[in-house]
Amino acid sequence: MKKILAALSAVLLALLCICVPVNAHELEKNAKDFASGTSLKLSVPDIDGKKCKDFRIVLSKKGKLNIKLTCEVSAVYVRLYDEDGEEIKYWIETSNSAGISKIESSIELDKGTYYVRIDRTHRTGSGDAKLTMTYPSSKSASSSKGSSLPAVVLKKGGKVELGALAGGKDGGEVELSTSDKKVAKVDSDGVVTAVSSGTAVITVKNGKNSYKIGVIVK
Fold first, then answer.
1. CA 194 to CA 34: how far, in whole Å?
2. Domain coordinates in residue numbering, the chain
3. Using an 8 Å Cβ cutoff, are 65 and 107 in contact?
4. Using an 8 Å Cβ cutoff, are 192 and 199 in contact?
5. Does the domain formed by 147-217 have CATH 3.40.640.10?
6. CA distance linking residue 88 with residue 70, whole number of Å
7. Which end of the chain offers a freer environment for a tag, N or C, measured as fewer CB atoms within 10 Å?
8. End-to-end CA distance of the chain
9. Is 66 in a helix, a strand, or coil?
C-alpha cells in the first residue's frame, strides 16, 4: 500500500510541474529585484497561482545561477523563466521528517534577464522560507574595498537578510550600520528592516573589506 501511495504522490508532483505558461507582462510587473549574494526571508502563501513569489535577476554575463531554498511546507517548487515568460526549468522537493523542503541547485545561463517563481503544491506547513541566489552581476558584492550591491526595494515594514555578507570572513568582527535609521535599520544579525519612505545605505565592514547596499523604501 505504501508503494502505491508513493507512486501516486510521484505522479501528482509530476502533473503539478507540467510547464505552466505565464503572462510575460504580469511577470515583469509583479517581480521584485533580487540582488546576487543576498538572502531573503519570505512566506510562501497558500496554494494560489496569483500569490506566488516572483523575483527578477539580471545576469551581466554568461554564468551559473545558484539557488538555495528552505521552506516549511510539505512540497515546494521553483520555476525559472526567461524574459518572454517561457519556462526554462523547474525544481521540486518534498519535505523531510522535520517538515522542511529544501532545494539547492544550479544552472548555466546566458547573459540576460530571468524570473524565478516560488510556489507550494500542498497546504501543509507554515510556508516560512529563506531564499539565497548568486549569479554573475556587475553590481554584485566582491572582496575589494568599497564594492557595492544594487539597491533593494522594500515596502514599509519589509525585511531582507544580508546573508553571507553579514557573517564575516575568517571569524573577523563585522560592523553593520545604516546611513538613515528613519528609513531603514539593520540589526546585528544582518537583517534590514524598512522603516519609512526614502533611501538609505547599509554598510558592512569586515576588517579591510567594505560592502554597501542601497535600500529604497516605498
1. 16
2. 21-134, 147-217
3. yes
4. no
5. no
6. 21
7. N
8. 54
9. strand
What pTM was computed for the model? 0.59
User: Which residue in the block uniquely carries the three cell numbers 523547474?
Assistant: 90
Residues 6+ apart with CB under 8 A from 52: 44, 45, 117, 118, 119
Question: The cell 497561482 sits on which residue?
Answer: 49
CATH 2.60.120.380 fits 21-134, yes or no: yes
Q: Give 107's strand partners.
A: 65
The dihedral of CA 105, 215, 193, 52: what is its sign?
negative
User: Measured in whole angstroms, how far is the alpha carbon of residue 189 from the centre of its chain?
Assistant: 18
CA distance 64 to 36: 11
Rounded to 5°, angle at Cα 33 from 30 and 38: 140
Which grid cell sits at 173? 568582527
Question: Could you write out the DSSP letters of every residue in 47-59?
Answer: S-GGG-EEEEEEE
- pLDDT score at 17: 44
* Tens-place pLDDT, residues 116-144: 998 877 667 788 888 899 998 765 443 33
